[in-house]
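Write out the bound-state structure for calcium ion.
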Amino acid sequence: MDRRVFLLLLLAGCADTSPHAPALLTTTAPPPPPTPPAPSLVAVVDAAPASALAFDAWLAAFRAKALAAGLTPQLLDRELGGVTPDPRVVSLDGKQPEFSKPVGDYIKGVISDERIAVGRRKRQELVFLPAVESRYGVPRDILLAVWAMESAFGKIQGNFDVVRSMVSLASDGRRRGWAEDQLIAALRIIDSGEASRVQLKGSWAGAMGQTQFLPSNYLTTAVDGDGDGKRDIWGSDNDALASAANLLAKGGWKPGVGWAREVILPAGFDYGLAEGPREIPAWWEVKGVKRADGLPWTAADAASPAGLLLPAGAFGPAFLALPNHFAIRSYNNSMSYALGIGLLADRFGGGGPLVAAWPVETPLGLGDRMAAQIALARLGFDPGPADGVVGAGTRKALRAWQAARGLPADGYLSMDMVARLKAQAGIV
Ligand code: CA
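---
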């Protein structure tokens, strides 16, 4: 199970920072986790006491914080007595993926024939879907796509003890404040009786159930869809999809508006407009941007601000992203994730494949991505930290550099761009 979480991390090349834990689902076989070297006996004897002391100190401090937050000593004694950090969780949290999957490969993996078939079948079988859709205003196809991506329609939910995962992340310290808040939320769920410790299972990063909700999401946003008095995002399809709908509604989902449309750009188009202005479709039409399917915009979409997305650069499919694209990103703040959800939903609803083809590309290594960021910084185009994560900041810096060099300013980091950047910045 722990191997599966690599998939979204593999998206780092096109991901922004996400408030949501990585989804579990893989579309390709991820690399196996490295085998930790066997520690020597001397190292164990030397290291264990220091590490145990640090953990005990953290636990004592956390206990004070949890008591101040209103949790009882009895609950803390029962749930945290004898707990130890899970080395698998700490190891997974420190991983940086070596290769970032090209967005086209990722999307092609998401939109598999098998997944489309399952989604279309579930669409027919689940009689509660129309009621969820009308209550929250989120289309059933979007909910089915979230369900497919987060947990393979509920089949892959993760089997980590969420309390221990959060203890591990909090005591390790890299995301201490966040993990402590999630740990307190998880303990509150147990204390409320809504789920037992045994039921509180999730991904290594603490994302739980069919919707992969963090404990804090569960407390604020999970709902009882089937009306049995419990919010069971693990065992009830209805509760899970209603909860996902509630999260998207809170994230700003606009009923009756689309999420994006594939568009065709004219020759000589200014690619620097990607991820730029958000204007109504008529504004884009003046610039020669047309819907790829040739159909007219609905009245609601025609009145909505839309931004241009070039997920694979100037030579791949182009999209006008409508407001609901950004609502999907409240689930996971990644352009690729939101595109995957939307495109999968379109296919569940009977839509066909994209008009434009995804370019065939070589995956960029971590070293390539970091070298490009270092080169941009050296050349005076600040991409943010050289962390190998190509997010909005890196794309913006890349567009500015491309424009200054007279290149199509699509902000897309291809192997060709990496080579050009390294050459100009003198990186060998
Ligand atoms: Ca329920």
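---
Strands lie at 99-100, 160-161, 201-202, 260-264, 290-291, 307-309, 318-321, 364-365.
Residues 224, 226, 228, 230, 232, 236, 239 surround calcium ion (CB under 6 Å).
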